[in-house]
## 1
Amino acid sequence: MLRLTINGKLHDTGNASPTMTLLEYIRSIPNLTGTKEGCAEGDCGACTVVRVANNKFQAVNSCLLQLGQVGASEIITVEGIKTINGGELSPIQECLAGGGGTQCGFCTPGFVMALFALGQSAEEKGDWVIHDALAGNLCRCTGYRPIVDAARVGCMKNISYERHAIEAPPYKYRKENQTFYMPKSLNELVSLREAVKGAMLLSGGTDLGLSISKDRVVPENVIYTGHVFELREIVETKGELIVGAAVTYTEALEYIKRLFPSFEELIRRIGSRQIRNLGTIGGNIGNASPIGDTLPCLISLDASLTLASAEGEREVPIEDYFVGYRETCLKSNEVIKNIKIPTLLDNQMFRTYKVSKRYDQDISSVIGAYRLTIKNSRITNARVAYGGLAPRPCRAKKTELAMERIGLDEDEFVELSKQISSDFQPISDHRASAKYRTKIAANLLIRLYRDLFGSENELEVVKV
Ligand SMILES: Cc1cc2nc3c(=O)[nH]c(=O)nc-3n(C[C@H](O)[C@H](O)[C@H](O)COP(=O)(O)OP(=O)(O)OC[C@H]3O[C@@H](n4cnc5c(N)ncnc54)[C@H](O)[C@@H]3O)c2cc1C
Ligand code: FES
Ligand code: FES
């Protein structure tokens, strides 16, 4: 049996499939049909609900969450805000209604929930933060201005909310021929990985959730990593940041912001808040896409992975983990336990750039990541990695060598940029042509020079 609270009321999922989406489950409850399905793939935000975890109110896409993932969770839907606010509309609802910010019945519930989550947070709610909070909510027909105006006032106040005690989720949840496993320790996880062959290994579900919501896959066995203590840890040592594979982007951000500010900027462009509240770096690596945003960064930063199985643990440099198009060296009985990222030395600099058609909520055409070690005004070591230029994310080794031979001079970087094609021969696809990808990769080297060594006024990044 699986239990969760929805709008403060305890629900037992009864006979529901453990891989039913939270959206479908909520909408099956009488009078809870305010949460809508727009795209069923995490893009539009119509299905946004709020999950209360560690006293934080997080907007999440209910179309991607499987029921098994939300055992013991506290969920608030658009209907619940008024209930928990003593029968009154909340400040953001008042402002949206009063300021002409309500639109159609599909997008509005999602906007309300995204802004309700923002209103409950302790962040400074400047315009940039408001736009960030709204990046995962699309309206296909009108404008966002009255919504942003409503947020400027309505998100400044929060409402009080009483947490609900709820028992920890069980070890497994079985319905008919489906079993959803919820191990709590690494030992339990690797034993299951050994015993339940072919099970779906699920973390945040922002990649795998689409197989349920779009492809209607009904997996027999799912092993969920979200309760495994060792995978949920984030540890900072003197020389490393160790991020558990099931730590979400949102949870990792404060550490990454302090240690690798440019990486933090890139992570803030992964999907939307709804996606980052669920998605994990471990899942990005597990998915092994050639355009996974964190992968070139981790390669450039010389990160390594701890892979665990019932036989023990082994450490693999992340650049050796990817062996071909979406192929990795992970064995079928292994899991990624954590990612170890060496912190920067005083004479090291790191920058990463994502190029995509839209600024927010878009998949990259090209990602470039650069870690440079500087001594006596020379680059003594360069680690340059790209995504989107080859079947797997990988280093530009010839460019690295050439970089170590040039001075810190823009003309020399311009010359260097012309030889990027000696490292990569990208393909054309619906996101970008081979020629465009090569041009971007080259231009990013010039941008890197201007960003690190050029005069401040030369580089203007336009955020639309
Ligand atoms: C709307 C939307 C926008 C997105 N935008 C971006 C974007 O801008 N940039 C980007 O890079 N990605 C993006 N993604 C993809 C996705 O969010 C990321 O890849 C995310 O990091 C996946 O993490 P997850 O925890 O959700 O993984 P899951 O979906 O749970 O799993 C992904 C894969 O990793 C494997 N896996 C998970 N945990 C482990 C583990 N511990 N050990 C071994 N394998 C494991 C799974 O088996 C699966 O194969 C987007 C997705 C959506 C739906
Ligand atoms: S239905 Fe579009 S994000 Fe969930
Ligand atoms: S999608 Fe709702 S008004 Fe545009």
## 2
Amino acid sequence: MDKQAVFAQVANLEERIGELYGELGSLKKKIMELLEENSKLQIENENLRNRLERQTHKQGDVSVPLGEGFDALARLYHEGFHVCNVHYGSMRTEGDCLFCLSFLHKS
Ligand SMILES: [Zn+2]
């Protein structure tokens, strides 16, 4: 057995694993960005839908009941994303967010 060759092979493998690890890291970052972008768009969409709903119900000054939009935001929060203005659309990494909770409770 050529020990030199085996060592070279292991070193080569180590290098490739290092590269793969780096690639995995950047993919993970990209997925994170996409998820956050997606949640931001969802929030935006719900806000626009709510505004539209409120506008169509404007006549008579009836207070508009909380619609589907609100449910969607609550769901998004429970999926682990911020829906508050402070951290807007980013992933919740530290448990509950007081800004989100107060936003969801007053909406
Ligand atoms: Zn929040």
